[in-house]
């Protein structure tokens, strides 16, 4: 097949551009010489899972479109292989810095070799492109890191610029076989590059630049690059997927889900590894966490144990489900694989916060800063940790970091949540509104709506139902305020939109139904509804709170105190947010009041008084007219 293809190309060149024949003949002779070399010198090829480092392409064309773009395309092609392991760019850039290579320098053959030795890799894969009139010659060469031996070499020629990516994919397939991957594996896991990614060099260039921005946690800044990529190539499946990730990081789950579904509708166009990633993300968009976990677990077990993003997403989903130990394990593995990437450190920090391991979280945060990693979501974790440790200077520093940035709504939302924790609802309301306006200014209406709903819910939890009645939008707030029928109507409508959502169906919907049942004096029915939340309640203190409310209604004080103490004893879970717009701190404070009421029912006045006093200490600067605070003070006086 290769010989026939070369003959056909040679004839076309001879007929159309006689002046290029000499140059092409030299290329063919080089190929023949290489073939003879391999026949006479059949050295060892790579072993399965050997790590390789990609160089930047030597670009002799003078066209800057190939700078960086072809390396990204080659990475796409080679990542389809379960046989090879590509040393991640984060490691390459980190090692380059340690070697005092100036930032932004191209990864030359020598730099790649030095990185390869540092990382214990086996080979570099060098690429080059040269123009032959309107045609382009592409060369790939695998070179052993330790002794500089050529392990494999492949040349291919594109008939024009528009076919460069297709030709690159063909050359990558050939080099995979020459390095030792079986023909069956290459045939099975070898989507053509222009289908697996894009046929447009310009779109791939934007995509590549977007990835470089995202690696440092600047998700929002990458969005215009990805949008430009799909404007150029509306069939660029992976670009749709990554836009979904960007919107998830922004907190706009509605648009994130829309892009996830769009990518999934085109999933047959991509490679096997990308199909796995997009499929799992589709399950995340639909909320089916069990299927998401199954997809990633199979992938890391069978074919892709070194793909950091799979471990990262497993960590995220485990944390979402309250499996913090599993989340920590996978987050640590992801950060080991890419120690200069931002996302895995968030997973690790989430797990440490939720496990109450604040010292480990501090050490991880210091490690992140040492790597120079930045971005709004990692600073969200820094601010949460500062709040947990009551570290005033750190709180001020992190609030200042968010000030004036496009993602300022995250910092404002966290400040609102912290004020809720201390019963400062008037100030909290102002900050929620500022956060919502800031999100709206960025075009994130969904985020603004969520922040305003959190504000309404906070009012309802504090016993002030005016905003719930006025807006009529928060189902839980309406249930807490006695509008059970309206709450259940909203919940039913939401369920139709997310029938497969694990957390909605197991935690959120039962909470609304349980509170509505309590309003109808059906405490036993409320407990029955909350049974589904048990496997996930470690991550959702509101589930314990609602269950505690039910036990109080049944006058089962000991059981109520136990539920509320699950919240007070796990403060980190109230702030270790895998969720996007937390207001969990309010549950932490109010849980002390629940503990006091529970022990009051048992007749244990000592413990009841202590819990009341802990609550009053947290709310010492609270708004004095909050109904729940007025009621608590009355109960405390009666207890005395």
General description of the model:
The protein has helices at 2-16, 21-40, 69-78, 89-98, 109-118, 164-178, 183-188, 193-196, 201-214, 219-232, 237-250, 253-265, 272-286, 289-302, 308-320, 324-337, 343-354, 358-370, 376-388, 392-402, 408-421, 425-441, 445-461, 466-471, 475-480, 484-497, 502-519, 523-530, 541-553, 557-568, 585-602, 605-618, 627-639; strands at residues 51-54, 58-59, 85-86, 123-132, 135-144, 150-158. With 640 residues, it is mainly alpha-helical. It has a domain at 2-196: Rossmann fold. Strands 1, 2, 3, 4, 5 and 6 form a six-stranded mixed sheet that branches. Strand 4 (123-132) and strand 5 form a beta hairpin. The longest helix is centred in the first third of the chain and has 20 residues, at 21-40. The protein is elongated and about 90 Å long.
Task: Considering the chains and any ligands shown, give keywords for the structure.
6 strands; 640 residues; mainly alpha; six-stranded mixed beta sheet; disordered N terminus; 6% strand; 33 helices; Rossmann fold
What's the topology here?
Elements: H1 2-16, H2 21-40, E1 51-54, E2 58-59, H3 69-78, E3 85-86, H4 89-98, H5 109-118, E4 123-132, E5 135-144, E6 150-158, H6 164-178, H7 183-188, H8 193-196, H9 201-214, H10 219-232, H11 237-250, H12 253-265, H13 272-286, H14 289-302, H15 308-320, H16 324-337, H17 343-354, H18 358-370, H19 376-388, H20 392-402, H21 408-421, H22 425-441, H23 445-461, H24 466-471, H25 475-480, H26 484-497, H27 502-519, H28 523-530, H29 541-553, H30 557-568, H31 585-602, H32 605-618, H33 627-639
Parallel strand pairs: 1-3, 1-4, 2-4
Antiparallel strand pairs: 4-5, 5-6
Helix pairs in contact: 1-2, 3-6, 3-9, 4-5, 9-10, 10-11, 11-12, 12-13, 13-14, 14-15, 15-16, 15-17, 16-17, 17-18, 17-19, 19-20, 19-21, 21-22, 21-31, 22-23, 26-27, 27-28, 27-29, 28-29, 29-30, 29-31, 30-31, 31-32, 32-33
């Amino acid at each position: 097949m290769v010989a026939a293809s070369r003959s056909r190309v040679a004839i076309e060149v001879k007929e159309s551009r006689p002046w290029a024949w000499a140059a092409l003949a030299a290329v063919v002779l080089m190929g023949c010489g290489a073939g003879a070399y391999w026949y006479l010198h059949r050295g060892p090829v790579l072993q399965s899972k050997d790590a390789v480092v990609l160089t930047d392409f030597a670009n002799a064309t003078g066209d800057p479109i190939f700078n960086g773009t072809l390396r990204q395309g080659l990475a796409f092609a080679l990542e389809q292989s379960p046989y090879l392991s590509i040393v991640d760019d984060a490691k390459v850039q980190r090692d380059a810095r340690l070697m005092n290579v100036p930032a932004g320098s191209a990864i030359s053959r020598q730099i790649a070799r030095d990185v390869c030795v540092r990382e214990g890799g086996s080979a570099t894969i060098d690429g080059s492109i040269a123009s032959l009139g309107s045609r382009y010659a592409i060369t790939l060469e695998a070179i052993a890191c330790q002794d500089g031996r050529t392990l494999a070499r492949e040349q291919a020629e594109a008939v024009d610029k528009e076919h460069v990516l297709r030709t690159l994919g063909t050359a990558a397939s050939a080099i995979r076989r020459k390095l030792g991957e079986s023909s069956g594996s290459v045939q099975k896991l070898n989507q053509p590059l222009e289908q697996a990614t894009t046929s447009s060099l310009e779109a791939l260039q934007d995509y590549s630049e977007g990835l470089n921005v995202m690696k440092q946690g600047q998700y929002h800044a990458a969005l215009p690059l990805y949008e430009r990529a799909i404007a150029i190539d509306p069939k660029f499946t992976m670009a749709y997927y990554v836009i979904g990730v960007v919107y998830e990081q922004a907190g706009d789950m509605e648009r994130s889900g829309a892009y996830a579904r769009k990518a999934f509708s085109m999933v047959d166009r991509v490679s096997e590894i990308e199909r796995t990633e997009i499929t799992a993300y589709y399950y995340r968009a639909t909320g089916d966490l069990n299927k998401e976990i199954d997809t990633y677990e199979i992938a890391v077990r069978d074919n892709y144990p070194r793909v950091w993003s799979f471990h990262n997403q497993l960590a995220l989903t485990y944390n979402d489900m309250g499996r913090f130990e599993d989340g920590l394990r996978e987050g640590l593995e992801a950060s080991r694989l890419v120690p200069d990437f931002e996302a895995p450190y968030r997973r690790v920090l989430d797990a440490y916060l939720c496990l109450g391991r604040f010292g480990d979280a501090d050490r991880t945060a210091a490690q992140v800063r040492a790597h120079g990693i930045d971005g709004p979501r990692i600073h969200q974790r820094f601010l949460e940790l500062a709040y947990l440790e009551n570290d005033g200077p750190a709180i001020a520093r992190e609030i200042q970091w968010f000030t004036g940035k496009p993602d300022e709504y995250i910092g404002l939302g966290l400040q609102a949540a912290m004020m809720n924790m201390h019963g400062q609802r008037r100030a909290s309301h102002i900050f929620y509104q500022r956060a919502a306006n800031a999100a709206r200014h960025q075009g994130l209406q969904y985020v603004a709506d969520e922040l305003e709903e959190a504000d309404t819910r906070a009012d309802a939890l504090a016993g002030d139902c005016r905003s719930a009645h006025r807006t009529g939008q928060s189902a839980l707030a309406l249930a807490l305020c006695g509008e059970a029928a309206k709450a259940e109507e909203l919940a039913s409508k939401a369920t139709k939109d997310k029938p497969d959502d694990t957390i909605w169906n197991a935690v959120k919907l039962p909470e609304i139904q349980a509170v509505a049942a309590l309003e109808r004096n059906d405490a036993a029915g409320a407990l029955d509804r909350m049974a589904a939340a048990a496997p996930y309640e470690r991550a959702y203190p509101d589930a314990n709170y609602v269950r505690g409310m039910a036990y109080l209604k049944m006058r089962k004080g000991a059981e109520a105190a136990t539920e509320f103490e699950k919240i007070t004893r796990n403060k980190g879970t109230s702030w270790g947010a895998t969720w996007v717009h937390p207001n969990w701190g309010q549950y932490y404070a109010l849980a002390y009041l629940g503990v006091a009421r529970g022990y009051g029912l048992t007749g244990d006045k000592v413990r009841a008084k202590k819990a009341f006093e802990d609550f009053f200490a947290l709310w010492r600067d609270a708004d004095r007219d909050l109904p729940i605070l007025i009621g608590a003070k009355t109960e405390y006086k009666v207890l005395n």
